[in-house]
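Lab notebook, bench 4. The sequencing result for the construct came back, and we need a structural model before the next group meeting so we can plan mutations. Quick request posted to the team channel:

Model the 3D structure of this chain.
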Amino acid sequence: MTIRLGAKTLASLPASVVRPAYDPAARGVGIVHVGVGAFHRAHQAVYTDAALGESGGDWRIDGISLRSTAIADALNPQDGLFTLLERGEDGVSARVVGSIRRMIAAARDTEAPLAALTAPETRIVSLTVTEKAYGIDRERGAIDEKHPAIAADLAAPRAPRGALGLLVEALRLRREKDLAPFTVLCCDNLPDNGGLVRAGLVDFAARLDPAFADWIRAHVAFPSTMVDRITPAPTDTTHAEVEQLLGVSDMAAVEAESFAQWVIEDHFPAGRPEWEKGGAIFVADVAPYEAMKLRMLNGSHSMMAYAGFLSGRKYVRDVMADETLAQLVRCHLAAAAATLAPLEGIDTDDYAQALMRRFANPAIAHKTYQIAMDGTEKLPQRILAPALHALHNDGDLRPFAFAVAAWMRYCTGRLDTGEPYRLRDPREEEIASTLARAGGDARAIADALTALSGLFPAELAANERWNGLVTDILASMLQNGMAQALEGEARPSA
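Done. Here's the predicted structure in token form:
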């Protein structure tokens, strides 16, 4: 049986493997992170590891898993250590990250999450739980009372199980114990993510105690962030390669591209690690960077996910290897860039070219089907917001209409061959019942999906030119198949 990665095996790892530049056991915890998935391990945990190596401090991370026990079972026997495989154009490198101290599985230990969140040393609580886990209605800036976790935690606020309920109860207890509040740092890929979580947290607290909600408004910081790193889901191949490179097994290994970016609003009243030592950028306003990334990187990612998956391209790199699809990506990037305000130090043409290279990286196996999930959560900020901007400013609407048509075609749940697949969307059942009533006509499908509550901006949904473009493109996809539709769309005359 192969030996597991752990504190006792660090010294014996091959010299080619990068190890923590500090003694992890000598550093205390200052951060609690909710949602320690692959992205957190490949992104914030790595920046924290670099900050600890350069500047020290008690900034290690205690992780909380709200539902699954798998990551706790993977990390805890390894003393929190895990391997990051960075896949660049020049090959692969391995780095062992030591910033995580332990994982708490809330499903097994219901009291431990609140104990960690109310510990005096906890100064930052960061989150990567995906938008759907918060239970916040973005349009209203308030909680969604029908969300299962929200409803359960409002009914039993002293025994919370969801992300917002947990943070509210932890802040209540800290206030009761006269402990300074922690900074809430959302690292999910959402516009104005700090403002979104603040609105949800304040609204949740107001349902319990309006005075407490006022205290949160006055005393708790919610800096916004922009995060970027392509992080495919780990596979058996990931674990096998790590074992070959390290000589030990690692059940928590992750892989990512060599590029990483983290832009952070610098507002941390209780202090923070020197993440800039790992390359993070601290700014007064994250919004312009956020818009660039969401509209260019994430928007083109969503477009190629739907178009690529439906045309048989398993990975993003396969999309980029097809000149027809690559041309559509270029068109989307150009249209998205045209919706952005100038950003000091950023050339959007250079950024677009860098994205094309990143997408084409042959070493990154990022599945189009993985990116396609949660479309109703992603579409508004990635595609619909820039489409509305283009509508207002006489911009190029067609690339956004193509992306929406591809999403609508994806919502039908069947490939051109007739093979079914799951949408993996929080509104999957609603979409299915809506389309069942609409029938198979392109206009009926487009109208039905456009009418989903809270998804399309009213002005866009009512625009005849926009609706005509979406319907025509969707009709081509349905009648001619995705391959022919893609060829037609990529022609210069389209």
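The chain has two domains: 7-283, 287-490.
Will bring this to the meeting.
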